[in-house]
Write a structure and sequence with these properties.
By secondary structure, this protein is mostly beta strands. It has two helices and 13 strands; from the N terminus they run βαββββββββαββββ.
Amino acid sequence: MPECITLIETYQFLPHILDENLGDTVSEAVHKNMEKCTEKGYILNVKNVEIEDASISPSCSMLDITVKILCTRLLPRPGDIYVGKICLIFELGILFQVAQVLKVLVPLEDGKFINLTGTWNAEKNYDSDEEYGEKVMVNSKGDTFFLGDLKRIKIENAHYNPMNKGFNCYASFVKDEK
């Protein structure tokens, strides 16, 4: 689940930013740079930025400004349960989007893909949704999954990938308790 955390980061600036707008300039730089994913998780939003310390770098005469950042992050961990929106159905399974930043795969264990006009051919590369109609997945229990459906999923494994600067996650469905 998204959580509120405090990060301590140091940014370098050119000395000419020293004026009455220093706080705004630093806050703007933090907001621009925090819209990303690192091994610390996805930064969803920055709530507050406070300047903790400022010094001049002895090696390059830049300003080193240390800031305390209060932010909301999403760090996927095994066992976490999320509500995700189905954004892709394909031969490997169903891809969910969580909090508009995290993509999670629920692998296809059994079942088949169909569409409203017949069987979806997993071997064919479709150029657009219009070409094959609305894609649907039906598992062996008769459950049907449509694009845009919201489902509860449980993270089974999560790994940060520094190459694409995101998390590779797979999950399973959470059984609805009745």
